[in-house]
Design brief:
By secondary structure, the protein is α+β, with helices and mostly antiparallel strands. The longest helix is centred in the C-terminal third of the chain and has 16 residues. InterPro entries: CT_A_B (IPR003778), Cyclophilin-like_dom_sf (IPR029000), PxpC (IPR052708).
Length: 308
């Protein structure tokens, strides 16, 4: 074992890169809501892409090391402390047996990612350990369980190995409290929205609603009108922005349903979906149309940085 849960907090889940190739079965993707923060946490401790890490939402989590570990915390600032002192973020940290690691209230962003050198260990379900609570799949127990008091997290044998100090570029450490501009690829139904609605969608600010979770984030703002009331249900990808009859968009995230019948403006890029996942209720965001070429270029640069 590697870490013991003294206090679980509201939501801490084990996530690898996600569960793919199973949507035909009605099983959703899972994986880290903030792919960017999760990937950097793993990169900082020299873990390969896809290594399971812990996603901590809202804080409230206290862990005790049961052996020496090398860890890194990236993503949101949840007032993390090591033995009561502020924990350095976005860099490797040595954790000694018996030391306590705690996450309190969100200070900047909503979700933090804790990676351990070598990764956490859990039994894959349908090819992934990603935890989807609603579907009862994955996680540390294989049954979609979020962490509870007294749980113990297993790590690999080399979890205490030393890693080379890395300097994360300043641009890769976002200020999650600042207004976010979210890149959106226009979708097949975009031309069915009225001209006024399209102007408003891309030129007016939106607010993150308090109805937000790993399934999706509702945005409040101008009412969007589409000439199509509903569609035959079709597959839903990560970041899809559906517009239900009330005209308020819903950006769908990792634990989304696999099919849906509302018209869509398009889809957020994976990195924009990650950025939205760090926004607190009431935070301002804007939508910005992008091209497939630009979206692919940004994603390739990100993946190249993780492989470097």
């Amino acid at each position: 074992m590697g870490l013991r849960v003294e206090h679980a907090g509201p939501l801490a889940l084990l996530q690898d890169a996600g569960r793919f190739g199973v949507r035909r079965l009605g099983v959703t993707q899972g994986g880290p809501a903030d792919l960017h923060g999760w990937a950097w946490a793993n990169r900082l401790v020299d873990n390969a892409w896809g290594t399971p890490a812990l996603e901590i939402t809202f804080g409230g989590l206290k862990l005790v090391a049961e052996r020496d570990l090398t860890i890194a915390v990236a993503g949101g600032d949840l007032s993390a402390t090591l033995e009561g002192r502020p924990l350095p973020l976005w860099q490797p940290v040595s954790l000694r047996e018996g030391q306590a690691l705690a996450f309190a209230a969100p200070r900047n962003g909503l979700r933090a990612y804790l990676a351990v050198a070598g990764g956490f260990q859990a039994e894959p379900v349908l090819g992934s350990v990603s935890c989807v609570v609603r579907e009862g799949l994955g996680g540390f127990d294989g049954r979609g369980g979020k962490l509870a008091d007294g749980d113990r997290l297993a790590v690999t044998a080399d979890a205490g190995r030393r890693v080379q100090e890395k300097r994360v570029p300043a641009a890769e450490c976002p200020d999650y409290a600042s207004p976010a501009t979210l890149a959106l690829l226009p979708g097949a139904q975009v031309a069915d929205f009225t001209g006024d609605s399209l102007f408003a969608a891309f030129n007016r600010p939106w607010r993150v609603d308090d109805r937000a979770d790993r399934m999706g984030v509702r945005l409040t703002g101008p009412k969007l009108t589409c000439r199509i009331g509903s569609l035959i249900s079709e597959g839903i990808g990560l970041g899809a922005v559906q517009v239900p009859p009330d005209g308020q968009p819903i950006a769908l995230l990792n634990d989304r349903q696999t099919i849906g019948g509302y018209p869509r403006l398009g889809a957020l890029t994976p990195l924009s979906a990650s950025r939205l996942a760090q926004c607190l209720p009431g935070q301002e965001v804007r939508l910005a149309a992008t091209t497939l070429e630009r979206a692919l270029s940004g994603q390739r640069r990100f993946r190249d940085a993780m492989a470097g």
